[in-house]
Amino acid sequence: MLKQFFSYTVIFVFLLWHPASALAGKIKLVYGEWDSAIASANVVKFLLENELGYEVEFIKFASSSGVWQSVASGEGDFALCAWLPVTHGSYRKETEGRVVDLGPNLRGARVGLIVPSYVTIDSIEELNKVKDKFSREIVGTGKDTGSMRNTKRAVHEYQLDMNIVYGSEGSMLALLKNKIKRKEWVVVVSWTPHWMFKTWDLKYLDDPRNIYGGEEFINTIIRKGLESDSPGLMRFLKKFHWKIDDINRIISWIHKGMEPGAAAKRWIKENPVKVGRWLR
């Protein structure tokens, strides 16, 4: 009897001092290998582990489709980087009924064709007139992304006599940097939030056919069943909302060489009021 009492006492003390660790469990956070997704994933991972006691495993993908399919299959528990309604609209259709959308965690995002501000056209409709100044190229990232799917559609619907150059975010940015240094014309596929807009003077080309959509939202998506499996996590995810300036600050620090986890920790330390609202 004394032994049993001692065992219960040990458990009680453990729960008293480590309540979240004992009850929270392991969570699989899915994210894409682009700046905004890396920023949000690291902020949430730090808070879940250090404030709410979860063990968080990252599952990362180079492609947008990989993120959606991972959550839809139940391999991952949730992702914070679903660009809707347009950019990832096709992935939402493909995973309909297998993914739960919690709505925006960030508003005011945008995707489209971007040029340096010294380029003297303002609309996608004008590209054919000056296609040779762009070497007849639209420079983008990987084929299996929502933004590049929409770029393929834009070339078709605007009847652009231009080629799509696929690559990585890194190769696109390197080319953009080189072209701007030489004051040459270049058109790339990119998005907001992104550190490039604080680095160079850039503008979006108008999109009268609305191929890329207007304002985009970055949504939180979860696997089916997570709400009943982990109500504590759900309370946090439903409160997790922030702004472009918040995420841009972290992206900028990472771009300047700070490790993503350290950048997330710094932002959390500098924003106790906002973080406190998420954790209440």
Offer a quick outline of the entry:
By secondary structure, the chain is an alpha/beta fold. Helix content is 45%, strand content 22%. The longest helix has 16 residues, at 2-17.
The CATH H-level homologous superfamily of the largest domain: Periplasmic binding protein-like II
The percentage of residues in β strands lies in 15-25%
Q: State the share of residues found in helices, binned by percent.
A: 40-55%
Number of domains: 2
Mean pLDDT: 91
Major sheet: 7 strands, mixed
| N-C termini distance | 40 Å
Determine and state the CATH class of the largest domain. Alpha Beta
Strand tally, please? 9
Characterization of this structure:
The chain is an alpha/beta fold and 280 residues long. The protein folds into 2 domains: 17-109 and 215-279, D-Maltodextrin-Binding Protein, domain 2 (3-Layer(aba) Sandwich); 111-204, D-Maltodextrin-Binding Protein, domain 2, CATH 3.40.190.100. 45% of the residues lie in helices and 22% in strands. Strands 1, 2, 3, 4, 7, 8 and 9 form a 7-stranded mixed sheet that branches. Strands 5-6 form a two-stranded parallel ribbon. α6 (146-157) links the parallel β5 and β6. α3 packs across α11, α3 crosses α12 (260-270) and α11 (244-255) crosses α12. The two termini are 40 Å apart. Mean pLDDT is 91; it is low at 1-23.
Which features characterize this protein?
alpha/beta, D-Maltodextrin-Binding Protein, domain 2, 2 domains, two-stranded parallel sheet, 13 helices
